[in-house]
Amino acid sequence: MEKIRERAATLLAEGVVTLVLGYEEGTKRPRPLFCRNSESARKLIFDSRCIHNLAVYLTKKELVGKDRFAVIAPIATLRSIMQLYVENQLSEDKLLVLTVDPSGELRELVTFEDIAGYVEQFELKRGEREQEILSKIDEMSREERWKFWMEEMSHCFKCYACRSACPLCYCSKCVVEVNRPQWINPWPAPLANMEWHINRAMHMVGRCTACGACGDACPVGIPIDLITRKMMEDMAPEFGYIPGQPAKKGNALSTWKLDDREQFIR
Amino acid sequence: MSSNTDFEPKIIAFVCNWCTYAGADLTGTSRLKYATNVKIVRFPCTGRIDFLLLLKSFAQGADGIIVSGCHPNDCHYTSGNFHARRRWIAFRSILDLMGVDIRRIQYSWVSAAEGSKWADLVNHTVADIRSLGPYQEYQKIADYLEKGGYHGED
Amino acid sequence: METKYISQSGIEQWFNAIITSGKRVYAPVNSRGQIDFKLVKNLNEVSSEYIQTTQSIKASVYPKAEVLFSYEKVNGKVNLTDFDPESVPETVMWKVHPCDAAGFKPLSAIFNWDGADKLHNAHLAKTSLVSFSCASADESCFCTSVNGSPGNTAGSDIQLTMLPDGGAIAEILTSRGGELAALLPSVFEADKGVKKEKYLVDLPARFSLEEVNTKLSKAFNSTVWKEQSERCIGCGACAFVCPTCACFDIQEDVHGSKGRRIRCWDACGFAMFTLHTSGHNPREHQSQRWRQRILHKFSYMPERLGVVGCTGCGRCSRACPVDMNILEHITSIAQQ
After folding, report:
1. Would you put residue C24 in left (φ > 0), alpha (ψ -120 to 50) or beta?
2. CATH classification code of B9-151
3. What is the domain extent for residue C298?
4. What is the pTM of this model?
C-alpha cells in the first residue's frame, strides 16, 4: 500500500501523469479517488476490498482530461481495460496501469501487450454468490426462469445504475434514450424493464468481462450481472473465446465464421 | 392439443427482400396453398432485423415469429446473414436464460427459388404454435399499466 | 392529538382490524435479501430487524409510472379519459419511519407550488401513515440535522413507540389517525404516562441547517462541486430511493388512434434530464448536476417553498454505488 502511495506521488510530482485514479477509504468500503497532486496520493489505499471497476471513468473525457493518467487496476479492471482497448477507446500513450500482483509486488503495465500478458495468468472463476444463483437458475424450468426474472424485474425502477457502472457502456447516446422510434418504453414496468435488460445483454455479447459492476451497483439487488455473465460463459464455446482471457480484436458480433452453429435454423 | 383447435396463431415473419420475400412471392405465383396466419414484414437483409422487433411482436400480440433470409453464402450484401446468424445464437441464449419461450421463434433460410419450402415453413410453424397455444404469458405483462397493478402487488 | 397505550396483542388485533376493513396495508418485508414496503396481510410478514428500507414509501404511495389521462380518436372526435382520483385505493403505510413520513411535506410543497397536483393529492388523501419511532440508527442516518428526530411526528397519522413489554405508546395525531384507531378502539388503553424519549435512539445533530444555508448561498461557483462529484457515475439511484425527490418525466404512449400520457420518475442526476432539443445542455457536466441536487434540497426549496428537501433518511448514501455520502458532503460544506 505504501509503495502505491509513493509511486503515485512520484508520478504526479514528476509530471509523468496528471491524474492517478485509485481508491480511498470510504464510509462503508473503499471508493474511487481522483488524485491530482502528490499530496492527495497519501489517501490512496489498495486491498481486496477495492472492487469498484475504475475503468468506467477512463472513457469520460471531462474527468481524465487530455494528458497522461494512471489507474490502479485490480484484475477485473484490467480485463475491462483490454476490452476498451480492442474497441479503440483507449490509447497506450495516455494510460499507465498500476497493479499489485498476488505476491504483493507493485507492477507497472505500460503497453497493452504488457496488460494482456499479465491478464492471461488469471483464470476467471465464478464466485460463491454467482455459483449459488446460477446453479439455482440452471435447475429451473423455462416457466420458472420466466417467473424468477419477472419477479426480479418488477423491482427495477430504471435508475440505470447498471448502465452507469459498466465500463463498456460508453455510448454517448444509449438506445433507451433514442426516441425515434422509442424502442424501449422509458417508464419502469416489467415488460419495459425486461426489454431493457435483454437489450443490455445483447449489447454485451462477447464484450462483457464479468466484472460484476452492474450487479454491485443495482440499488434494488437484482442479480443483473448474472445475465451478462451467463451469456458470456454460454457464448464462449460458440464464438471461440475464453472467459476472463484478454480481449482480442474483433468482437463476437462484429465478426462471423462460416461454420457458426446453425442446427436451430430450419 | 385439441383444446387449441379454435385458436388461430398470429405469426409475424421478418424476411429479407432478396431471398425469402422473393421465395414467398414464388409460393404465391406457383399457386401453392399455405396457412394464412402469417404477416410478412420485408427487410433489406436479415442483418437489418433488430432483435427488439422480435420482442415488440410478442408484446403486441404475436404468438410466433418467423425470421428468414438468404442461405449462407447467398447474401445480397455478402455477409448480412452471417452476422444475423451470430446475433440469433446470442439472442436465443439470452431469451432462454430469461425464460422467454424460444420455441416460438423459428429461424430459417429460404431462397428465392424455394417457394414450396416457404409454404412448408409457414405450415410447420403454424402447427407448432397452435400446439403451444397463445403466448399469453408474454402478452400478460405488456399491458401492465392498464391493470392498475402498478403498485407491484401482483 | 391524544396519547394511548397499546399492548403487544392489541397491536396485532388492531393490525388485523385494519386488514379486515379492506384497506391495503404496505409494510417493510424482507424478501430477496432486501427490506422494502410490500403489500401484507399478516403482521408476522413484517420485518423487525432493520434500520431502513431500500426504497422510501414514495415507491409504494405513488406508482413509478402513472397514467395522467388517456385518449382515443373515434370518427374524428377525441374521447378523453381523465385520471380518476376515486381509482386510488385506501392505503395504510405500516411501520413507516419518521423520516419517511416527514417526506410528504416537501413533496406536497413541490407538487402544489403553482397549482394543485390532482394525482399527488389523490394519493395523499387516500394514504394513512402509521409510523414507528426509531430505537436504532446507523452511520447514514442524520434526521436530527434536518429538523427531524427519531420521534418526529410530522406527517404521521399515528405514531407508535415500542416499549420493552412489546406494547407501544400510541400517539394519535390526526383525525385520519383517529379513524384508524376507531377501527378497534378497545385496544387503545389509557396512557401509562411513560415518556417516549427514553425509547428513542440518541442521534446528535451533525451540522446546522442555517450554517449550510449560509455557505450554500455563496457556493454556486465553488470548486467543491467538482471535487465532490468526480466519482459520481451519474446513475439515478439516489433520486429513486429518496423520499423527497420529485423529478418526473412526461411520456406519450401512442398506438394508432389511441394513446395515453404517462408520468414517470426521473432524476436531475441524468445528463438527459436537462438536454434541450437544440442539443444544448445547461447542466452538461456531472458536477453541475450534483450541485443542482444539493442546492435544490438545501437552498432552493427552503428559500422558495419554506421546507428543506431532505429528511435525513440516508437512503441515497446507502444506495450509491460509489459512496457519494450526502452527510459527509454536507458536513464538509458546512465546515468550509
Report:
1. beta
2. 3.40.50
3. 2-334
4. 0.92
